[in-house]
Design brief:
The complex is a heterodimer of chains A (292) and B (253). Chain A is of the alpha/beta class and 292 residues long. Chain A is built from 13 helices and ten strands. The longest helix of chain A is centred in the C-terminal third of the chain and has 18 residues. With 253 residues, chain B is mostly helical. Chain B is flat, with a radius of gyration of 22 Å. The chains are: A alpha/beta (292), B mainly alpha (253). The structure holds adenosine-5'-triphosphate (ATP) and magnesium ion.
């Protein structure tokens, strides 16, 4: 049994954005300008940038919300799993791409957790004998089995975020786009969400695109990093390569992890020649080498 | 105010009724209350409402609802008594305002009707899970899901908006606006300007809710999509028949 409803076509890019510019009808300047990026099937991409940089807008371009629901000037093209988002109905794109939005409360449709997870499964016509298994699996994956019968109004912000993620995970989409899903979570729960996404990414090959302000988490889990600045894609590439532009990132107001700043300082003084570390093991190695 | 219009989980006879029955019954009661002219009939319906609340295992909630409604009712009662000046004069107040038997009668009937109609609706919300209501309306009543979802979302969003209003008021309080004033009018005057930010935030919320729902396959849903089936059995039939009997009685009296 395939894990997702629609497997990716072989050799396809999951996302292909070409010369994409978008300006909301009510906006004065384009929210995104001249974006070019491709995301391979099975990749794990983090998006970072200041408030208003266009992170949410970029996720809207990937899940068909633009041009499906927001009107504006649209240039260039966006393809999702080979489908042009202008020509494909949003609900069809949605069966390939699951979305967790920034405003969690607006996303909730039910009053009880279980119903929230059932909603999408029912809509997409998942066979009824498969549903129970999907619900338990999604709840377990997000570590919220005990919340199943709880009233959503009585949950904390963090618990709600896990419910929102679970309701998308249950659909087993080919790709999941999440807009700041850890915004209200404590460090431990944020880490849990990332670990969960990382598992799904590794085990099922689900493509993950996540907007996140906590750069240390992105560095630890994502494979690629996209840095947005005033609607421009300032950097996009493997985490390590993007972090190598530490100074430029700082000037955009994005604070790179301390170990990366340290690497910056060490290499500028000529004490260390290796690439920037992205986790503690690599940091330790760098420190040891630099001291010799 | 926040906790009055919410679902209270339970497993009583009332909870187990089909959601369609639960929404139909208040409507039948409503019709009966409008058709009747007898005050004792209205009083009887009130007792019935309270009985249903107790049967549903939520006596505390029922009385709280009643108390809330009672305040509003008292206000309307006084207004009507003061405004209706026709009929036999029972007493004369300063400024030549009359209290008449007709005024008193109309006021009492109006207030009883108001409570009789509102209380079952509020109770319905307390004993019905909204997703089940939507599914039942679609499956049993053949209502398009779009409308069923709109109805249940409207009910579900009430506490959300109350929460938003609370938040806006707290923000204003922090800036020195005193909402804890005793005067009803003064409080109302302070609250009305806040409706604009509430409206804006609500419209935004509804817009993003609509998008989120659409992306979860809302428009692909069919009548048979619902996973949990609600059954329609003898108990439901009995309840609806009882409602129809009440309507028949209300025509007679
Ligand atoms: N629905 C909309 N209508 C008009 N303009 C919008 C709309 N949504 C966003 N914008 C504008 O587009 C720009 C990019 O907004 P976007 O929400 O994508 O930023 P963001 O990076 O997600 O910010 P944040 O970190 O605050 O979520 C902003 O200037 C914003 O004001
Ligand atoms: Mg955003």
């Amino acid at each position: 049994m395939p894990w997702c409803i629609f497997p990716a076509d072989k050799g396809q890019h999951m996302i292909r954005i070409s010369d994409f510019t978008f300006q909301y009808d009510s906006g004065r300047t384009p929210a995104l300008q001249n974006i070019n990026m491709t995301i391979a099937d099975g990749d794990f991409v983090g998006i970072i940038g200041n408030s208003g940089a266009g992170k949410s807008t970029l996720t809207y371009a990937m899940n068909g919300v633009i041009p499906g629901f927001y009107r504006g000037d649209y240039y260039g093209s966006v393809e999702v799993n080979g489908m042009d988002t202008v020509e494909t109905r949003p609900e069809i794109i949605a069966s390939h791409v699951g979305s967790v939005f920034q405003d969690i409360d607006a996303q909730m449709v039910a009053s009880v957790v279980e119903d929230e997870i059932l909603f999408g499964l029912e809509n997409f016509g998942i066979p009824h004998d498969e549903i129970e298994g999907r619900v338990t699996e999604a709840l377990a994956a997000c570590g919220i089995e005990d919340l199943r019968m709880r009233h959503i109004d009585t949950l904390s912000g963090g618990q709600r975020q896990k419910v929102a993620v679970a309701s998308i995970v249950a659909l087993r989409p080919r790709m999941i786009v999440l807009d700041e899903p850890t915004g209200e979570l404590d460090p431990q729960s944020s880490e849990q969400i990332f670990a969960l996404l990382s598992d799904i990414n590794r085990v099922y090959g689900t493509t993950i695109v996540i907007v996140e302000q906590k750069i240390a988490l992105l560095c630890a889990y994502a494979r690629k990093l996209a840095v947005l600045d005033h609607g421009h894609l300032a950097f996009f590439g493997p985490v390590r390569e993007v972090l190598a532009n530490g100074r430029a990132m700082e000037s955009l107001g994005i604070h790179v992890p301390r170990i990366v700043s340290l690497h910056q300082a060490l290499s500028e003084r000529g004490w260390y020649q290796g690439t920037a570390p992205v986790n503690m093991d690599e940091a330790e190695r760098m420190a040891r080498e630099a001291m010799q | 105010m926040k906790s009055l219009l919410v679902y209270i989980p339970g497993d009583t006879v009332i909870h187990r009724l089909n959601p369609c029955t639960k929404i139909l019954l208040p409507l039948l009661l409503c019709i009966a209350c409008f058709l009747t002219d007898a005050w004792w009939f209205l009083l009887g319906v009130l007792v019935l409402d309270i009985g249903i609340g107790f049967l549903a295992g939520i006596p505390g909630h029922t009385l709280k609802l009643l108390r809330g409604l009672g305040k509003l009712a008292l206000f309307l009662l006084v207004m009507q008594v003061l405004f209706i000046q026709s009929g036999r004069v029972l007493a004369t107040l300063p400024l030549g305002i009359l209290i008449t038997d007709h005024g008193l009668q109309v006021a009492v009937m109006g207030v009883l009707r108001l409570i009789d109609i509102t209380l079952p609706l509020a109770l319905m919300i307390a004993v019905t899970q909204m997703s089940d209501l939507a599914n039942a309306l679609v499956y049993h009543a053949h209502m398009p899901y779009k409308y069923a979802f709109a109805i249940t979302s409207a009910i579900r969003f009430i506490p959300v908006f109350t929460g938003d209003m609370q938040m806006i008021m707290e923000a204003q309080t922090a800036r020195g606006v005193a909402f804890d004033t005793k005067s009803f009018w003064k409080k109302l005057r302070l609250m009305i300007p806040l409706c604009v930010p509430l409206l804006i935030s609500s419209v935004k919320k509804i817009e993003s809710a609509a998008i989120a729902v659409e992306l979860r396959g809302f428009s692909l849903r069919t009548r048979r999509s619902a996973y949990r089936r609600t059954s329609f059995d003898g108990r439901d039939l009995t309840a609806i028949l009882a409602g129809l009997v009440l309507i028949a009685l209300s025509v007679v009296f």
